[in-house]
Design goal:
alpha+beta, Nuclear Transport Factor 2, Chain: A, Penicillin-binding protein 2a (Domain 2), Beta-lactamase, 3 domains, 6-stranded mixed beta sheet, 5-stranded mixed beta sheet, 20 helices, 27 strands
């Protein structure tokens, strides 16, 4: 019994010992998961900084430098690397793992990216108890070898053109010359004097250009200015070359027919400024040619198209090894504007005689096309024609007259035109020189023809401000226009009261409009409907918000008859000399300070053409703006309409 008990106890001890040994074996240290090391490698491939990656076969700083240099041409292209998978081998003596890494390069703002999967081998170091990455350049790009590098070559897309509706390219590549100093052609000490001589020749700031030339490298070409290469160029190649280091490098640039042609509207094209590059968030790079202003900037994405490129591998002798990725350029699309080249140039020519800020706008009433929108030379590149905000003076009486018609008045209605009228203690009077014979009780049509202030001051003071606002909207003064370009048509506040409301009735007070806005008023009268002006024919602008009350054809006909009287026997009789169809018009003068300085306005209709002329400082609408309208419409008729 004792023997059997001892034997059983020995057997049980043996079993427990065996189980204990097995349990110790199961709890012994295991090889860690290689995933964290693979993730660390992915992060390093995103920055080319391997300082936190355990490498086998290469120093981390050396690897960082080598791969940073290999991918340096792509340093401005964003990329990310992620771990796709990690497979561990069955070999327990020397554990191995293979990591698949996906890299995506965001080449541009399209959905087309360059991506690939690279492979990295990982080896477990039992002594260090850590996974190490077996280094090779191919971990960053499959088949990449020591000494090879990746380069990006771009191919420009053809920039779209700004065309007119008759298919003529208003802005297209035209010959230019880049004028500057080539410092490789200068002897030591010549730079400053040469720069000043060239600056004087091309009429730019000599001190600023001399400083720019002096600060440039010894082999730099320092551009002073880009000039149109045509017969008008006074700085000839010979004169430029006569300056030490002077060079004229021929090129082409997208340009309008003339230097001034609709420049505030069409805008300009040139190398991207630092501000544009920063705002683009990587889309635009230094040296890219982009729209800098106007339509060229507003529609730059459409016009510029998409740059093509290829990514290639080169060896240490700069020979191409293979192509990795390519995309063909996509040329930009054209935009079509409604501007009529001949009418735009005529409008600009008419304004050359005007010293103050000025503008002339022409609209085709039948479809709302803006045929000309010229701003005078004194505006210095500002788009006064479409964005100016000014009191419209008595041209606004067309709007007040519409509001009065809607109250039940007719062109034949008898209204009182006293020499002065006091509203809430403020005295209003007619303009100096108003004919005494037209004072007293006169038809509403005569009040328009002679421009009686007191009639329309009284008319506005007896209505709600919203009635003027609605009348203006019916005649096209939309506060949210859809022109296809930056534009302001008009502002007629709905909360005006008292003397402000009375002054609004004669286009003073707080009402504002632009030359485009008043041309739209004339166009609406001519068309017999509310006109929404537009500058773009393609792409077409969104439809403008319709006014709450559209212009009725009968209302427009009555307004047009009253505007006829302004020309036949009123303030614009000089417009009778214009050849061609009957001319209808309205003059306007808006004093804007205590010294009685005034804006001068005229709006006119002839056939399927509505015009507004504006001069910021004038003697009176008929005297200052009238001749501009006369010259423009006469020129249009002489050219065949």
């Amino acid at each position: 019994m004792i023997t059997m008990h001892v034997a059983r106890r020995l057997a049980l001890t043996t079993v427990l010992s065996t189980l204990a040994l097995g349990g110790l074996s199961a709890c012994s240290p295991q090889v860690p998961d290689p995933q964290p090391t693979a993730e660390s490698l992915a992060r390093a491939l995103g920055t080319f900084d391997f300082s936190s990656v355990p490498l086998n076969g290469e120093d981390p700083s050396t690897a960082s430098t080598a791969l940073s240099e290999a991918f340096a041409p792509l340093k401005d292209v964003k990329h990310t690397t992620t771990v796709e998978s990690v497979q561990t081998s069955e070999n327990q003596d020397t554990p191995q793992a293979t990591a698949k890494l996906k890299t995506v390069w965001d080449m541009d703002d399209t959905d087309t990216d360059w991506s690939y999967v690279s492979t990295a081998e990982l080896t477990y170091d039992a002594e260090a108890k850590a996974w190490q990455v077996d280094y090779s350049p191919s971990i960053a790009l499959p088949e990449l070898e020591e000494g090879q590098y990746v380069a990006l070559k771009t191919s420009k897309a053809a920039r779209g053109q700004i065309r007119s509706t008759d298919k003529e390219a208003l802005v297209k590549d035209r010959p230019v010359v880049h004028v500057g100093i080539d410092k490789t052609r200068l002897d030591a000490g010549q730079a400053a004097d040469a720069a000043k001589k060239l600056a004087k020749l091309v009429d730019i700031d000599a001190a600023a250009y001399a400083s720019k030339v002096k600060g440039a490298g010894d082999k730099a070409f320092v551009e002073a200015i880009t000039l149109r290469d045509n017969a008008d160029r006074t700085a000839t190649d010979a004169k430029i070359e006569a300056v030490p280091g002077g060079r004229a490098i021929p090129d082409t640039e997208p340009l309008a027919p003339t230097r001034t042609f609709a420049r505030p509207i069409l805008g300009s094209v040139g190398q991207a400024t630092a501000e544009i590059v920063e705002k683009s968030k990587g889309k635009t790079k230094a040296g890219d040619v982009v729209g800098l202003s106007g339509l060229q900037a507003q529609y730059n994405d459409r016009l510029s198209g998409t740059t093509g490129y290829s990514v290639d591998v080169y060896d240490s002798s700069h020979q191409q090894v293979r192509q990795l990725f390519t995309r063909k350029p996509v040329d930009g699309k054209n935009i079509v504007v409604t501007l009529d080249s001949a009418k735009q140039q005529l409008a600009e020519q008419v304004l050359t005689q005007v010293d103050p800020a000025s503008a002339l706008v022409a609209i085709r009433p039948s479809d709302g096309s803006i045929l000309a929108a010229a701003s005078g030379p004194a505006d210095r590149g500002l788009n006064t024609a479409m964005l100016g905000k000014y009191a419209p003076g008595s041209t606004f009486k067309v709007i007040t007259a519409l509001a009065m018609l809607r109250e039940g008045q007719k062109p034949t209605s008898q209204v009182k035109c006293p020499a002065t009228l006091t509203i809430d203690g403020k005295e209003f009077k007619n303009y100096d020189g108003y004919p005494d014979a037209k004072l007293g009780t006169i038809p509403l049509s005569e009040a328009i023809a002679q421009s009686c202030n007191t009639v329309f001051v009284k008319g506005a003071s007896t209505m709600k401000a919203s009635q003027l606002t609605d009348a203006g909207a019916s005649l096209g003064l939309n506060d949210k226009p859809s022109v296809g370009a930056s534009a302001f048509l008009g502002s007629i506040p709905e909360d005006s009261t008292g003397t402000t409301l009375a002054a609004n009735g004669i286009g003073q007070g707080v009402v504002e409009t632009s030359p485009l806005g008043m041309a739209t008023v004339a166009a609406s009268v001519a068309a017999g409907k509310t006109v929404s002006p537009h500058l773009l024919d393609s792409p077409k602008p969104d439809a403008a918000t319709a006014p709450s009350t559209k212009l009725d054809p009968g209302e427009a006909a009555e307004l047009k008859k009253m505007m006829a009287g302004t020309v036949t026997h009123g303030t614009l009789v000089d417009l009778q000399a214009i050849p061609g169809p009957t001319v209808y018009g309205k003059s306007g003068t808006a004093e804007y300070d205590a010294d009685h300085n005034a804006h001068a306005w005229v709006i006119a209709i002839q056939g399927d053409l509505a015009v507004a002329a504006f001069v910021a400082e004038g003697n009176g609408g008929a005297q200052t703006a009238g001749p501009l309208v006369s010259d423009f419409l006469t020129g249009v008729q002489q050219a065949g309409g």
